[in-house]
């Protein structure tokens, strides 16, 4: 980090915080604070929705995911555009019709207070965890690679977000996310073209894709029906669809973005914009990771990208063994470079040499084996260490190979992304706590100013909780997977509640309430016995299927309960009373 990098980083972050606080100061009531007075145009809605999902985890973990496993992760997003259409046609018109502040407010109108409270609590649990992770993700990477204190990083990022979110609420989140998305896209596009520039002169982009393909990195679509596979076309189009439907349709961190739209049409246009751009954006981020892989075919690469692991081994009795493996990898890298240059020469002559392709595959397998041996040594040096280095790959490249000045910009990208998703999370947590839990259970009359101050207080409270969780969190196999796993555990049940509410007027409050409890309990058991207890790669079920299973269980069990135990229940919802 040079002085110029520090200047770019600090100026960028301070501009976002000061601009967001100044532009949105002076909220008069809860409607202004939570719904931004319904003045948000569709373009801002679309950017805000994208920025909320595009956390720092996206830009740290996704390229590393592609580096190790290729482009297959993009299948995770295949169901998203379809989910956007369903939400635009069903969810948005209903939310606007009943003029709700939060998604869960609708559930009391449709069912009862118990169902509303249950859904709100499930949201608070999973989003509270997720928001802590969005702070923790960049902190642990930056602390490992730059030597910064992780606790201080958690506190700094958390406080920066709390300042403008506390000050301006939803409007502040929406306004700042426009600047954050501009910084994020500028940084990623610049990095992508720089990687291409750093490749050998005789190498074209088409050549780079061929090398990636020869190393099994360009398999975009997998039509396997194997449930053990994490990412397939079928899991993406079903589990990914249900996850996107739940996340964008029932998660207040996203619902709050488009509830602030000027009209139903403006909200719908914002979501359609997200549906059109999200998959290409994720494809581009994954492709950047693949290009980083191609770049390291011609440059030195460490056995493990996490520098803490190297330091750990060097201070242990396994130092020499690890160093010998690094020498083997260095020699292998030289062989890869030679074969790749020969392969490029053949491609430039319009000949795709199958013998050279096979040699590349064999070398890749040997490299994979060396890295596996390195992870075993790291585990022997410290059994509690995290050997997986996917989250460190992209930032290692940034620090060691990008020009000075651009490092500050990419740091600003990562921290800005963390701030944008964290701000949305805090805003949603505060809104849900204030509207669905606090306000709904306060018996005496309170002023609008009182509830505004209460919402601000809950913003501060959840900000401190998120910082605390970030400070005690531990690194998972891959952070982007961790966030999606947490979501998948809870989203299916919550989505099932909403689907019943939207599409089945016969099912009443008690049936849906108990079906949701049964469904959530079942999902937790499935996750434990089919996923959690197995080592990575040996799970009996891909976690994306939890979304589909949770939603279907809630639908089916509620139907059974309504037609058996609760068939004589009377209409008890506001919606039913109005209709009758």
Describe the structure.
The protein is mainly α and 580 residues long. Helix content is 76%, strand content 0%. The chain is built from 23 helices and no strands. The protein has helices at 3-23, 30-35, 42-53, 56-69, 80-97, 103-110, 113-146, 150-198, 205-214, 233-237, 239-250, 252-259, 264-295, 307-314, 319-348, 354-381, 393-401, 406-441, 448-472, 479-503, 509-532, 545-562, 574-579. The longest helix has 49 residues, at 150-198. The model has no long low-confidence stretch (mean pLDDT 82).
Q: Biggest sheet, open or closed, and with what strands and sense?
A: none
What fraction strand? under 5%
Bin the helical content: over 70%
Count of distinct strands: 0
Number of helices: 23
Q: What sort of overall outline do the alpha carbons produce when their principal axes are compared?
A: globular
What's the helix-strand series? HHHHHHHHHHHHHHHHHHHHHHH
Report the uncertain regions. none
- Alpha-carbon distance between the two ends: 67 Å
Cα Rg: 25 Å
Structural category: mainly alpha
Rounded mean pLDDT is 82
């Amino acid at each position: 980090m040079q002085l110029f990098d520090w200047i770019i980083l600090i100026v960028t972050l301070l501009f976002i915080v000061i601009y967001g606080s100044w532009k949105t100061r002076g909220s008069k009531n809860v409607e202004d604070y939570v719904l931004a007075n319904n003045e948000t145009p569709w373009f801002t809605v679309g950017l805000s929705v994208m920025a909320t999902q595009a956390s720092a985890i996206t830009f740290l973990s996704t390229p590393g995911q592609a580096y190790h496993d290729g482009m297959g992760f993009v299948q995770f997003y295949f169901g998203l555009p379809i989910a956007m259409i369903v939400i635009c046609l069903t969810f948005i018109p209903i939310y606007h019709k009943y003029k709700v502040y939060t998604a869960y407010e609708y559930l009391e109108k449709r069912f009862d207070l118990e169902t509303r409270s249950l859904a709100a609590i499930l949201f608070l649990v999973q989003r509270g965890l997720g928001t802590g992770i969005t702070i923790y993700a960049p902190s642990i990477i930056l602390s490992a690679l730059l030597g910064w204190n992780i606790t201080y990083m958690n506190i700094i990022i958390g406080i920066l977000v709390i300042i403008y979110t506390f000050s301006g609420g939803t409007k502040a989140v929406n306004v700042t996310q426009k600047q954050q998305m501009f910084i994020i896209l500028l940084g990623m596009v610049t990095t992508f073209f720089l990687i291409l520039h750093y490749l050998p002169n005789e190498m074209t982009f088409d050549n780079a894709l061929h090398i990636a393909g020869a190393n099994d990195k360009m398999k975009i679509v997998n039509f396997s029906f194997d449930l053990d596979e994490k990412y397939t076309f079928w899991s993406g189009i079903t589990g990914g669809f249900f996850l996107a439907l739940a996340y964008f349709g029932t998660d207040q961190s996203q619902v709050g973005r488009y509830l602030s739209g000027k009209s139903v049409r403006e909200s719908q246009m914002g979501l359609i914009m997200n549906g059109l751009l999200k998959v290409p954006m994720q494809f581009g981020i994954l492709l950047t990771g693949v290009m980083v892989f191609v770049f390291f075919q011609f440059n030195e690469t460490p056995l493990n990208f996490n520098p803490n692991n190297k330091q750990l081994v060097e201070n242990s009795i396994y130092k020499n063994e690890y160093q010998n493996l690094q020498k083997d990898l260095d020699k292998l890298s030289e062989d890869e470079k030679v074969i790749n240059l020969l392969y490029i020469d053949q491609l430039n002559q319009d000949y795709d040499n199958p013998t050279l392709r096979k040699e590349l595959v064999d070398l890749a397998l040997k490299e994979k084996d060396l890295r596996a041996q390195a992870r075993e040594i790291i585990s022997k040096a410290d059994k509690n260490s995290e050997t997986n280095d996917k989250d460190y790959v992209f930032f290692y490249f940034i620090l060691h190979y990008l020009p000075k000045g651009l490092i500050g910009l990419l740091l600003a990208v990562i921290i800005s992304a963390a701030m944008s998703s964290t701000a949305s999370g805090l805003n949603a947590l505060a809104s849900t706590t204030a509207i669905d839990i606090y306000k709904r259970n306060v018996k005496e009359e309170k002023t609008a100013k009182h509830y505004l101050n209460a919402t601000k207080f809950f913003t501060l409270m959840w900000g401190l909780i998120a910082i605390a969780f970030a400070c005690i969190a531990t690194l998972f196999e891959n952070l982007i997977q961790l966030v999606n796993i947490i979501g998948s555990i809870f989203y299916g049940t919550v989505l099932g509640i909403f689907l019943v509410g939207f599409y089945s007027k016969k099912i009443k409050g008690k049936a849906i309430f108990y079906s949701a409890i049964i469904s959530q309990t079942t999902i937790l058991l499935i996750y434990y016995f089919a996923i959690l207890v197995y080592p990575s790669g040996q799970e009996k079920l891909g976690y994306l299927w939890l979304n589909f299973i949770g939603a279907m269980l809630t639908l089916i069990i509620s139907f059974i309960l309504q037609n058996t135990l609760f068939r004589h229940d009377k209409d008890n919802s506001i919606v039913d009373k109005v209709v009758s």
